[in-house]
Amino acid sequence: MKKEQTIYMVRLPLVILLFIALWLLPNITHAQTITVSVEIPDIKTSPYHKPYVAVWIETPKREGVHTLAFWRQQADWFKDLRQWWRKIGRNQSPDYQAVAGATRKPGVYSLQWDGKLTSGKMLPAGEYLLHVESVREQGSREYLQQAFTYPSDNKQVFTIEGKQEIGTVTLSIQP
Amino acid sequence: MPVNYQQWPRVILTAISMLMVSSATAHERYILPSHTLLSGDQPQTVTVNASISNAIFHPDQPLGDSGSGRDVGEFKEYFANLDYAVIKPDGQMTTDTQWTAFSRMSVADVTLTDPGTYRIGIVQPDIFMTTFINSDGQPERIWGPSPNIPDGAKNVVRRTTAARVETFVTLNNATQAALKPTGTGIEALSITHPNDLFANEPAQFMLYFNGKPLTENVDVKLIQAGTRHRNDREEKQLIVAKDGAVNFTPTQAGFYLLIAETHIDKPQQQDVDVKHYSLYLTLEVFPE
Predict the structure, then answer these.
(1) What is the pLDDT, as a whole number, of residue A46?
(2) How far is Cα of residue A85 from the mean position of the Cα atoms in its chain?
(3) Are B34 and B107 in contact (CB under 8 A)?
(4) Residues B169, B32: Cα–Cα separation, whole Å
(5) Total number of domains constituting chain B
(6) Which residues pair with B237 in a beta bridge?
(7) What interface predicted TM-score (ipTM) does this complex get?
(8) Does B188 fall in a domain?
(9) Which of B232, B257, B261 to probe by mutation at the A interface, max A CB count within 10 Å?
């Protein structure tokens, strides 16, 4: 009698844990980390102004989903990030204040995103496009895109090369 | 940088950056004429607009005012010091062109009373500026001939900056008198006549500095209109030949801005370390 009771008491928490685990599993698999590395090329020119840069994710229907980086100085020139501005910037939707920062000097910058939207929800599974846009005062403008699937059973790694104002961009999604 | 006249500190900053000398922070400027080539038996008027703008030929800030335009705030003193010079086909210079400042550009009418080539310009004489690294390690600059340099400043450089912003227009026959060097600042004058430029035809200009051929220590670039509507700015560096000649063959019709810059590092003048000079010349190229 005493023995049976012990087994019963051990099994009950196990069953509860199993249910909790099954319920959590889809969310855990969705929480894949998206890592983007962006290179600002070293351009030898005078005058050189550090570029305004936006890195963001859209749906294939061109709905703004999330901004990963927005490096800027004066608000007067935000609109020169033309694609980002029309899809996210001017509506301030989704909100990007958390990733807004000063312009960066040439170099390679790594961005990580855990898939958590500013709404607090997780990024739904689906097809997406990473967008990278850079514009430099008295310089040129460049705009790159890369499609990806989220989440992924396998590790996805993409490398795209800019021609002028953006160097190498890598996108990796780790299951 | 655009000007918001409600934000006075910004305006001051803008006025400062506008006057900035060193190519490290200079903004482009231009004069854009309604016409460069005209014909007719009667005098004709061209309307010119001028602006300080990095988007070539898309205006951003006014450049020039003769007292009739809007309140330009901190720009007022600067505009009052500019020479609104027009050189007529007989070689005579007038300075009575009336410029009117608007929010984003300045505008003037220039009546061509005589046939021939006119040079329409805005000439900025030497303006004093001192640059230095402050005690926090940040670059700073102060305008005026007698700046109060704060304690702990390093790399103090006393500078002047001067500029010519100009273009050429011709009524009927193209003439040469307006193309002679004035002897002030940088000038790019024709071997090819500046109102006889066509796509895919070689163009050649001779650079002068204070009236003498400018052959070294000079940076020349050419930018075609429309930077706002293309991703690549397509700034072309031009090579200056040993005699001061600059050659290029425009492949497309349209307006172009030729920018030339030079500086004198140890001028005779006692109170200056570096003197900067620039030229912003607007050229129109017609299709073949």
Answers:
(1) 82
(2) 17
(3) no
(4) 11
(5) 1
(6) B221
(7) 0.73
(8) yes
(9) B232
Indicate the residue of B2, B25, B28 with minimum beta-carbon distance to A76: B2
Q: Tell me, yes or no, whether B3 lies in a domain.
A: no
Are the beta carbons of B275 and B209 closer than 8 angstroms?
no
Contact A125, A30 (CB under 8 A): yes
What domain range includes position B112? 8-285
Angle at B226 between CA B285 and CA B220, to 5 degrees: 65
Instruction: Give the C-alpha separation, B148 to B125, whole Å.
Output: 22
- What average pLDDT does the segment B160-168 reach? 97
B-interface mutation test, from A72, A134, A140, most B Cβ less than 10 A away = A140
The answer to whether residue B229 is domain-embedded is yes
Strand A100-102: give its sheet, edge to edge.
A100-102, A64-72, A52-58, A126-135, A141-150
- DSSP class of residue A166 equals -
Rounded distance between C-alpha atoms, residue B46 and residue B147, angstroms: 41
Dihedral pair phi/psi, residue A8, rounded to 5°: -60, -40
Residue type, A124: P
Tell me the shortest Cα–Cα distance from A135 to chain B, in angstroms. Answer: 9
Q: What pTM, to 2 d.p., does this model score?
A: 0.82
Residue type for B251, please? Answer: T
**What three-state secondary structure class fits A133?**
strand
Average pLDDT (B58-73) is 94
**Contact, B32 vs B50, CB < 8 A?**
yes
User: The tokens of A113 are what?
Assistant: 């995103």
With a cut of 70, say whether residue A161 has pLDDT above it. Answer: yes
Cβ-based burial of B16 (10 A; exposed 0-12, middle 13-18, buried ≥19): middle
Residue A110 in contact with residue A104, Cβ under 8 Å? no
Domain contains B142 = yes
The closest alpha carbon to B194, from B36, B33, B32, belongs to: B36
Taking alpha carbons only, the member of B32, B106, B108 closest to residue B70 is B106
Residues 58-117 of A with CB under 8 A from B: 74, 76
Considering only the beta carbons, identify the residue of A47, A76, A164 that sits closest to B24: A47
Structure confidence by residue, pLDDT tens digits, A101-124 = 999 999 999 999 999 999 999 999
**Residues 38-57 of chain A whose Cβ lies under 8 A from any Cβ of chain B:** 46-48
